[in-house]
Amino acid sequence: MASKTALVTGGIGGIGSATCQQLAKDGMQVYALHLPAEAAQAEQWCEQIRQQGLVVNIVAADVSSDASCVTMAADLREQGVSPDVLVNCAGITRDKTLKNLPPELWEAVINTNLSSIYHVTRQFSATMANRGWGRIISISSVNGQRGMFGQTNYCAAKAGIHGFTMALAQELAAKGVTVNSISPGYIDTAMTQAIPEVIRNQITASIPIGRMGKPQDIASTISFLCSEGASYITGANIPVNGGYFMSF
What predicted TM-score, i.e. pTM, was given to this entire model? Predict the structure, then answer.
């Protein structure tokens, strides 16, 4: 994988950070994408990664803005950077029941979690196809499969990710580019740490494996999907949820 380049959106978050580190260990040149407002945080994160003996580059863009993503992609091209692997990992929650959900919170989640997949992927998919090799992996969610009270915005966005994945997989399959999604269950990150402890305990008790997932559980799955061993997998949604939700 020494010749491959990866771009990971939400790259300094819980799952994104583990993914960047795993792909760097796999020998890729990795770029972690973060919000422009997170520049100082990203620099600090980057230094922590360097102290582990890994090199990860950082790049800024607002994935909810198409214009920002166009600029970001142009900047990378000027540097001679053209990702072979794209991991769409950026995501937020803004939970409220539908009757209490104002338009701005609906739009914030849809734009960051779903529209971002369009904004970023379209910058690089054609180049991957022309090159004859590529991996596009988007992070969905178990709640996009089963639904969750108070998450109409989040569940709609996460379910939409797989619809996008299946359609694009058909467009790119003959070009050597695989397109897949991963639906994590409850992963031990800052997002789930914000859940009240009593509810976290109830969630953990409902997971057959008996624990929340670790970011590395997702990063390892991404690493596999990037490998040549996964070259016949496309248009798939991979559940990584400890048995929390099982289906065909």
Answer: 0.96
